[in-house]
UniProtKB/TrEMBL annotation:
Protein name stated in the entry: Helix-turn-helix domain-containing protein
InterPro entries from the UniProt entry: Helicase_HTH
Organism for this UniProt entry: Atopococcus tabaci
Domain Helicase Helix-turn-helix stretches: 252-341
Pfam families reported in the protein's UniProt record: HTH_40 (PF14493)
Length: 358
């Protein structure tokens, strides 16, 4: 495991409430369950959800064990770990020397970031070769879907000014991000007189560790979102990549959302798709967390919201079955998905208020 990854994992535990090791592993691996996404939201680790999909549990546990032995972490309750002052000092010294990856946002970009970056790399190469009227070259990716996408994209946007406009947008974005970050990305670009270095070739250089690479790509995407009117060509690539990957949603959650937009209830959707209501509940949690609770507000009324919100504000355990017992309700009267969606809305509103206050 790369050094940057180890320090990045340790940094996640820098919270007053601590983190449960098992939950943190599932969050970093991107386990597709409603409970994992909910824990990521509640622990404010959603921006790192699915950052290390290939991470092995044994490797993660080894990091936790060694960090505990060296005093960087302390286990105060079974399975719950807290960062120590020594650990905090080690992390600070490491990131002071390498730079801290502070642009990562998996909840917004993690489901299409690498697809977007491959599209940009291939498009940059194709337009560079076109500028030299060269038609004989080896594409930087052998992916046929990506090559077909470039052809479609060129059909939509190609005109006499395309080469200059694309170059000017690259220049504008490089100027916005600064020399060092621009150098990191530009070294991966292939053009008429330059063969871009692959991620594998750049491994070992701190700026191309997994964490730092994703940080740079997400930083680029943030710039594109913030300056979409100044770089419409890049924004169109960002939108294509997002749409091809169902935005932030899994394919199954995306299909459930489509049926919600047809005004079907969760119960009707479960029947239509021939799955359990619990499965649809997981999809609704994914939609509410990754796309915002405004997407699911119509699934409960104000009276239901007030009832659940009152319970949530007064009970630290926040158990669904306890909620039903307190109000004398049955599951069919108040399905679990309503309770969870209201809880998600309350958490999101609280975080939004906290951000505005700061």
């Amino acid at each position: 495991m790369q050094t940057s990854t180890i320090y990045f994992i340790l940094n996640l535990f820098d919270k007053k409430t601590g983190l449960k090791a098992a939950q943190t592993f599932h969050i970093l691996q991107g386990k597709r369950t409603g409970s994992t996404l909910f824990q990521a939201l509640r622990n404010q680790t959603l921006t790192y959800y699915g950052l290390f999909p290939q991470m092995e549990r044994t490797a993660f546990d080894a990091v936790i064990q060694k960090s505990t032995q060296t005093g960087a972490l302390i286990e105060k309750e079974e399975g719950w770990f807290y960062l120590t002052e020594s650990g905090r000092s080690w992390i600070r010294r490491y990131f002071d020397s390498t730079g801290c990856p502070d642009q990562i946002d998996q909840s917004l970009y993690g489901f299409f970031d690498l697809d977007f970056w491959e599209k940009i790399q291939l498009l940059t190469q194709v337009l560079s070769e076109k500028s030299y009227l060269n038609t004989v070259y080896v594409p930087m990716t052998q992916s046929l879907p990506q090559q077909y996408w470039v052809k479609k994209w060129l059909y939509r946007y190609e005109d006499e000014s395309l080469l200059d406009r694309f170059y000017q947008e690259w220049l504008y974005l490089f100027q916005q991000m600064g020399d060092e970050k621009a150098d990191v990305l530009s070294r991966q670009l292939t053009g008429h007189s330059q063969i871009g270095q692959t991620r594998g070739q750049l491994l070992g250089k701190k700026s191309q560790d997994k964490v730092f690479l994703i940080d740079q790509i997400h930083g680029l995407l943030q710039l594109i979102d913030a300056h979409s009117s100044d770089c419409p060509l890049f924004y169109s690539v960002r939108q294509d990549a997002s749409e091809e990957n169902h935005g932030q949603l899994s394919k199954t959650a995306y299909e459930t959302k489509q049926l919600l937009e047809e005004n079907l209830s969760p119960e009707e959707i479960a029947v239509r798709r021939q799955v359990k209501l619990g499965t649809i509940s997981d999809h609704l949690v994914e939609i509410a967390i990754l796309q915002g609770s405004q997407e699911t507000l119509h699934l409960y009324n104000q009276e239901e919201k007030n009832q659940a919100a009152a319970y949530l504000s007064k009970n630290s355990k926040k158990q669904y079955k306890d909620f039903l017992s307190v109000y004398g309700l049955k599951e069919e009267d108040f399905p679990f998905y309503k309770y969870r969606l209201i809880e998600i809305e309350e958490i999101q509103n609280r975080y939004d208020s906290s951000r505005k206050a700061t």
